[in-house]
Write a structure and sequence with these properties.
This protein is an alpha+beta fold. It has two domains: 83 residues, Glutaredoxin (3-Layer(aba) Sandwich), CATH 3.40.30; 95 residues, Glutathione S-transferase Yfyf (Class Pi), Chain A, domain 2 (Up-down Bundle), CATH 1.20.1050.10. Helices cover 53% and strands 9% of the residues. It is built from eight helices and four strands, in the order βαβαββαααααα. Strands 2-1-3-4 form a four-stranded mixed β-sheet, covered by helices on one side. It binds glutathione. The site of glutathione has 12 residues, from helix 1.
């Protein structure tokens, strides 16, 4: 059975979404990222960056065990393993990857930084404009519902910055409401991880 080492943060909850959406069985192991366990040698063997989340699958490629860090890589791995949520052909797969990496390296990172430094607010508002514009003509980020959507619903579904009103971005709000109506997303946001 897959072990998911995780925490109750947007980063930590992300892999739970894909595991729940695909009905993949898993053990959830809580690791407090500020508790020190994530810097111990045994944990660094499976997650060399010392962060959560991290996934261990005893039945990885070719039947050999695999361990993975980085929520985007973990979601790609489960999507590929189950053949779901990553586009239905080569072109749509690349559309998903493009949005997955855009959202991971821009939106996720900038909004994490906004927790610590207000000077990235302008950058975050530019990103909100870009996703709001994209979602004006697109139901989901990349074709059908995919791991690209799963990348940022934790951030926007539990938005924690009272100096930015997400209602100023109505296409994004339409997407948030649609995503939050999914039972697997609701469960992944509510499941206790601590
Ligand atoms: N890009 C990583 C970010 C992971 C991350 O920053 N995790 C935080 C908890 S939300 C962490 O483990 N922080 C502890 C540390 O950096 O030492 C991902 O998406 O998995």
């Amino acid at each position: 059975m897959i072990d998911l080492y995780s925490w109750k943060s947007a980063n930590g909850r992300r892999p739970i979404i894909i595991l729940e959406e695909t009905g993949t069985p898993y053990n959830l192991i809580a690791i407090d990222p500020h508790g020190g366990k994530n810097k111990e040698p045994d944990y660094l063997k499976i997650s060399p960056g010392g962060k959560v989340p991290c996934l261990v699958d005893p039945d990885g490629p070719g039947g050999s065990p695999i361990h993975l860090m980085e929520s985007a890589a973990i979601m790609e791995y489960i999507a590929e393993k189950t053949g779901q949520f990553m586009g239905s052909d080569e072109a749509s797969k690349w559309a998903v990857k493009q949005w997955l990496y855009y959202l991971a390296t821009n939106v996720s990172v900038s909004f994490s930084n906004l927790n610590h430094a207000r000077d990235v607010e302008g950058q975050c508002r530019d990103l909100l404009d870009s996703v709001n514009n994209h979602l004006a003509d697109n139901e989901y980020f990349a074709g059908d519902y995919s791991i690209a959507d799963m990348m940022v619903i934790g951030r926007f579904g539990a938005f924690a910055f009272d100096f930015i009103d997400l209602n100023d971005y109505p296409n994004l709000m339409r997407w948030v409401d649609m995503m939050m109506a999914r039972p697997a997303i609701k469960k992944s946001m509510e499941i206790p991880v601590s």
